[in-house]
Design a protein that fits this description.
mainly alpha, 3 helices, Ribosomal_uS7_dom_sf, Small ribosomal subunit protein uS7 domain-containing protein
Length: 77
């Protein structure tokens, strides 16, 4: 039996501009060599281009893209 207390679960923080956890999770995946500000710049530029081309909410497009890429476990044979 452990004498230590149980660790508290931490939730992912949201990004400063969109206040969205998904954006922060994507930035953490993009991040290389602990350069988070560069990862934010890359993502914000991409979001800006999505906004200009589609003229819709770029977060919805990002969410749809991630859903399409993730594997669908429910339909396994």
């Amino acid at each position: 039996m452990s004498r230590r207390g149980t660790a508290e679960k931490r939730t992912a923080k949201s990004d400063p501009i969109f206040r969205n956890r998904l954006v922060n999770m994507v930035v953490n995946r993009i991040m290389k060599d602990e350069k988070k500000s560069l990862a934010y710049q890359i993502l914000y530029r991409a979001v800006k281009k999505i906004q200009q081309k589609t003229e819709t909410n770029p977060l919805l497009v990002l969410r749809q893209a991630i859903r399409r890429v993730t594997p669908n476990i429910g339909n396994r044979i």
